[in-house]
Amino acid sequence: MTSFSQPHPAQSPAELLAFANRVIAAQSFSTLIGAQFTDITPGGATLRVPLREDLRQHHGFAHGGLLSAMADISLTFIGALALGPNVLTSEFKINFVRPGVGEQLVSRASVVSSTRRQAVTRCDIFAVTGDDEKLVATALGTIVLADVPESAASGGEDRGR
């Protein structure tokens, strides 16, 4: 997860949302799929992705890789709010409930439990058409503090060395 600086707990909801979107804007894959956070609180994160034609599989449903990427982004970001900015996904499991068909996908993530070094997080992903939402996947993940140099965590020049 790329970060700029850890959000201060006293940040307003608008400041926290702007911070979250700066983080994913710095990740080329997140921008490739059109991911954007639309709501962030210390207890929850909502991520939206327009369900474009190029993000569908051969039957016209949301590709499982897209749903998995949304889960990873959502689970890790909410874990970072609990643990701090230097985190990685240790593991996650996703259950595909039904095919994703609609105009956009929405992921809602929360922290199930956290300690000083790891957070168990979950998210539900919905396909949205108009005002109608249908659950298409649910995921559970473990997010851990990473031993990465500060410059790598902040998107600095030492990344990948």
TrEMBL record:
Keyword Ribonucleoprotein set for record: no
Keyword set, alphabetical order: Hydrolase
Known catalytic reactions: a fatty acyl-CoA + H2O = a fatty acid + CoA + H(+); a medium-chain fatty acyl-CoA + H2O = a medium-chain fatty acid + CoA + H(+); a long-chain fatty acyl-CoA + H2O = a long-chain fatty acid + CoA + H(+)
Residue span, Thioesterase domain: 59-131
Record-listed E.C. numbers: 3.1.2.20
Family: Belongs to the YigI thioesterase family.
Protein name: Medium/long-chain acyl-CoA thioesterase YigI
Organism: Deinococcus wulumuqiensis
